Here is the input.
Amino acid sequence: MKTNVGSYDAGVRFVIGCCVVFMSVNGWGWWALLGLVPILTAACSFCPLYLLFHIDTEAWEEGYEARHNHHLHDKHGH
Here is the structure.
């Protein structure tokens, strides 16, 4: 299974999922346990809906990193 969820996307999914699960503990009931879905998709780096709609945030992230070199230079500029 090819991954299609980038690291930034996974981070956002994890935070949102944790917030929703937290709400289930504080009165939203069983419906809020749907927060487990974004947590699991973040952990697996795979989203079935992304596959259906041909979205790949991991490829977008890799392309961005390839175009923008973010390596820090030492004090001599090397």
User: Anything to note?
Assistant: The chain has one domain: 7-65. The mean pLDDT is 87. The radius of gyration is 17 Å. Residues 72 and 78 are 9 Å apart (CA to CA).
